[in-house]
Design a protein that fits this description.
46% helix, 5-stranded parallel sheet, alpha/beta, 254 residues, 2 domains, 10 helices
Length: 254
Amino acid sequence: MIPEIPKLDAAPSYADMVKLRTESYNKTKGNLQGYDCPECLNRGYIAKFTDGVEFLSECGCMKTRLTLQRIKESGLENQLKSCTFKNFETDSEWQKQIKKSAMEFIQSDATGFFIGGQSGCGKTHICTAVIGNFIKKGRSARYFVWREDSVILKSLVNTSEYTERFKEFKNADILYIDELFKGDGTTAADIKLAFELIDFRARQCLKTIISTELDENALIACDQAIAGRIFQMSKRFRLVIPKDIRKNYRLRKE
């Protein structure tokens, strides 16, 4: 009886080899710092093989890393760490309502969150907590600190640098405008800048968070068109804290 000749395994195909290579790459841990990504394991890229083509695709975490880098460069890194939902004081009913509304906004598909009114009542804190929560979910965000960024942009009007800088704020995945119209007085240039920014984001349905010391009437007095767009964007999440010095936590004695 002639012994049976064992069958040799077929040589792996090109597709099989590429598949093994991509799987091996995607299991390799990277060395990027600042954000721990479970998708790319901190490499920044994910290997893919589609329609016979092998390529590297940038991981979504790169937008988050860029956001964190920008925040660090802006000097707001410590603020992002300290201004969380966990340490937002809720001794009073109005504070509980602020926190409740902010947390609901995060879970919603709404595009606008607005909080105005009393200075020192926690407006920046709660808005920063919202931003921090979105970043943890992998979203990218930009801060627009009005009293600083508006001055820089106005000084660059009619230059290519203005166009590039402004474009980044206009197209940001999530934008936080901190202390809108904060300063010595609102000028025509301020109105033009704010309208162009807010109008664009309203039309594009981009998530925008706004804090200001102005209440609804004061905002209307500044410019009805800007106020109208803000109210339309944030109709489900619009809060105004009435002026009351007792709500200014910066003035409280320890």
